[in-house]
Structures
1.
Amino acid sequence: MTTAKFEKLLSILKEMQSVVLAFSGGVDSTFLLKAVRESGIRHLAVTAFSETMPGSELKCAEETARLMGVHHRIIRTGELDNPEFSRNPRNRCFYCKDELFSKLSDIAAAEGYKCVIDGSNNDDLADWRPGRQAAVKHGVRSPLMEAALSKDEIREISKAMGLPTWSKPASPCLSSRLPYGTEITRDALKRIELSEEFLKSLGFGNLRVRSHDDMARIEVTDKELSRFFDKGIRESVVTRLREFGFKYIVVDLEGFRSGRLNE
């Protein structure tokens, strides 16, 4: 089944002839970029960078694109300058994607690419994705969705292809760590980024630092929760996160769950 779907994906891409791809360096966009390369069509992978994206993710995207030998460009986006985005409504992602797809559409029009594409997959149809409205607005196509490829299938094929991202955890923008209605500021995003990078430096894997005003709520996987019983780790985390600007640091006993604030 997955082989047939991949062949369908290649057929869809070949029909497009040339594409500008929104490339984050995650599982889906890396897999799609690999398929674009195999299809042989003219392409440009574009990574958008702003304060909402961890610097480590930008470096990862740059390195992945370099190793794949693709045409890659980094652009700056300014969603934080849009008050409709920074006030953090439930459809926050629409304004972010509207900014991104507007810029990608301009590039495509100016440089003769026929389509703008993104890495949305079939599973995204069942989740809260206001960014899809922006994709529709700008005529952005989602080849993975058109080929009915699920996240699990994308990981499976990526592993078989030897793509290093096949097991990479999801990494949504830093704004997703702030509850809807809480203003998104550069300072808030920076302390979230610093806090998550510090926890990763201690060996924690899939995690989130949710920001509730001056309180940091840490989510880690169930198997890593017990590490906080280690006094040295606990004191180290409290000390550093306070240095980053949080007053209170708590660990969520329910553990990590992607999309928690959507609940």
Note: The two ends are 33 Å apart (CA to CA).
2.
Amino acid sequence: MIRSEFILLGSLLLIPLTASAIDYPYQTAEPQKAGWPLTPEERAYVVDKPEYERRPGREANKHLPQLWPVVPSAGHWGGTSWLDTHAKLVEYVKANPGPCDVLLVGDSITQQWGSPLDKGVFNEEWQKHFADYRTINIGIGGDKTQNLLWRLDHGGVDGLQPKVVIVMIGNNNMFFTPETGIEPVAKGVQTVVANLREKLPQAVVIVVKILPCHAPGVRFYEDIKKTNHAMDALKLDADSKVTILDLWNDFVNADGTLKKELFTPDKIHLSPAGYAVYAERLKPLLYKLHPVTIKR
């Protein structure tokens, strides 16, 4: 379902827009709210304006950081690089339409399961445990909830019919929690789930809580804990097709410090041992939700 609306800028200007059926809490001046390929106007809007110039309220000289995580916004790495990355994944999805077993959605931790953006093959742990699943991976490193929302609305999953969607998103929103606050990030995850449920209604969605990083006492670490707790309050799994996977205790010691062997030296990304733990926890849940005939 697509809705046509108008946005009022100042007291005079009405701009027509086309919106997704998701009820986002704010409509920016973005010229193309959904669809792929992009119009020339949308491409210019995304490429020529840094992301901070496209945030909710910016066009009306308002500062609305609490809305950033829940309103779609294309990423921006300078020039066309982020948009080119998204376009590559759209082409990958278009080349693999129809039914698949698993759709992986998220940021760099998802991308590093194995992606067409990298070597084009899944990592050892995915191949060890899930080789029998036809899997599509659309993770992009650095993405925040708002970037993922934009990708979903602009061709990111068009034509796919996954049985299970596995989503982990929100880590990169932690850079901005001093401005946005915690609850808006949790609501950003909630909005991603709502978007996926609308676009892929037959799929079961596994929401993997944000993994710990850095160390206790570090703002990033503490804000991730708070965000995960805020997600609990939203009861995403009240929807019978949504399941929550909490891996926090698998990745920290009794004192809350990271299990170093499960992370790379940056204390954010996962080592091969970290993906092994992730896979072992994911395996019984995925096998239960969508059994496949195991060939081995």
Note: The beta strands are 3-9, 13-19, 98-106, 135-137, 160-168, 204-208, 242-245.
